């Protein structure tokens, strides 16, 4: 029997050896960083469409920009003569699109260590491999890290080994912001497995015999100290900087995940050094053909800056805020953030709704303190105030509109306020002109008269009849007081303080604005751009002071405010609003896992990987994993969970009035015969008492009468605003019942639920996204079920996501273990490092 086993092993050995040789055609020597021995050769962005384009960057070690390989085909002869690049770093992104005939990127990029993602493709991706029909493996054998941006590898029909890479490690565990997508490539079941000389090196690989390179934690068997950041140290056991990507000596790093300053990794460049290419700190930008702009080196000076020439060469950029500027959208705001004095005039005409963000105005003009010419604001419906000009103190009036006006504000429908509280803007020369501002009260404009130095306000320039006509400037209702009364995972009940009786006369109802707000930085003056600012709106034609916001997302912070909806009259339109407030919905059960897959490690081990739920609905505290031997054979796929009949996701349709009994409009609703009978019968029984015309009538004190009428009006007013509380009930979060097997009545009375008994084999911390199952049977199919659980919720575990995973056989495991590379273990360790 032993002889037969050896014979079987030898039968498969030539096949695997041949595959290993083919996969290893390009050299496997890993690069040293250019900064360790020689000065790097930096080149600019390049688009490669043929071999000649490759030859142009053959000696470049760093591409300061992007690399695009697009739409060209390689013949076998061209493939044999393909130049191997020295490239170690790309600062922006790498795109490989429809390059046919290329089997592995190792032929072109054998030394590529890092993609920084300073600028991203489509503002999202740093590595994209798309529609390359002959690509058999990715082959970026030296790649350690993609520092910023997502990865997309899609529609490469011959591509294997895409699932054998630990992309989470390459992304630096930044999976909350950036992701990887592997889609429509060759199915992993039709691809070979990784293997190597020992257990340590065959878990992740780029291709056969090409294990994934790791950021090493030890050298020559010397384990790093536990105090070392990220478990990195040099050959002497001395800790490396936490920003080191590759090996380090006593005073430098091979490659940095941050910025390089001399031989050290730093977080920011310290003057007089400036940041170049998003990767290094330099003293002289011009040595790289760049211009100095503050602490940055740039290719050209941005808007509002002019190029400074020294000794006949462009050296730096200097701020030049000169001219007359018209702002119509956010695209016109470039460069204004650095201007403190504008030598000229400024016109705001924000007519481009789709491309205008009010928050951009705040960033652009937050430092502006003086305008030497005029300020014109016209036809800007998205403006509610001029608070974004928070540091403006002078309008010089050196240039005037029609030789008269320094401040010109016309036709701004939603403008309600001018400067910030206690802000004073002096107008050195010229007059003001305000018309067709329907929500700007005349009294606020009149306050500007104190800031004019040359003339007073005239009726022709500012009129009560064309400013503030849609507001009650006498403050019938100045501000609504609102609070959040009750909250659950999908609903929030808002309650408004009682309004006085006189305020109910013009009142029709309320308008409720709300939106998601991850941070509490929503500005009140951007609320009217509801379309582009993502405000949702609920309108009620009722004077009830309560309202329920529905269909909210669990465990999400929202901003909201309320406005009155009133009768329109030209000079009497009460329009009150509340301040913007915030609330967070309660947590809910998490959804199914976004993605789950496995990798057989050995005949007795399977490694499970997963992505958190797309809808966590709270803070994931743990994962519950259960596994057992499958009774039937299944395909190794994850089965998505569809929640049917989930009460939290269902909304009952409104009952049809025609099917719910007679209505007041129905002919027989009032039963007129019965009414006549009842009224006639009562006349026989009850006889009204004759009036006593001679009795004395007691007169009421006028003061008491006034107070009584006032109290009655107030009570009637409150009743009108608060007489249907039952219409605004929302479910409250249940707690766990404190008894075992509670009855239905007990659960209803105490608003509690029975604890779910979930069977599981392993409880995994919520911040982990992988787990290794051990002690399994060889060549056996297992059913693996994994679910996420959130904090702060009774029975807060979500649905199971199912994975069918199979271990490899002992025979295959023995064959893989018997394949030893001719290189000794010591040489192999050096090779991988």
TrEMBL record:
Keyword Translocase: no
UniProtKB keywords: Cell wall, Glycoprotein, Secreted, Signal
Pfam families: Recep_L_domain
InterPro entries xrefs: CWI-Assembly_Regulator (IPR051648), FN3_dom (IPR003961), FN3_sf (IPR036116), Ig-like_fold (IPR013783), Rcpt_L-dom (IPR000494), Rcpt_L-dom_sf (IPR036941)
Entry's localization field: Secreted, Cell wall
Chain's gene name: 101891334
Keyword Signal listed: yes
Domain Receptor L-domain: 59-169, 338-446
Protein name: Receptor L-domain domain-containing protein
Residues annotated as signal peptide: 1-24
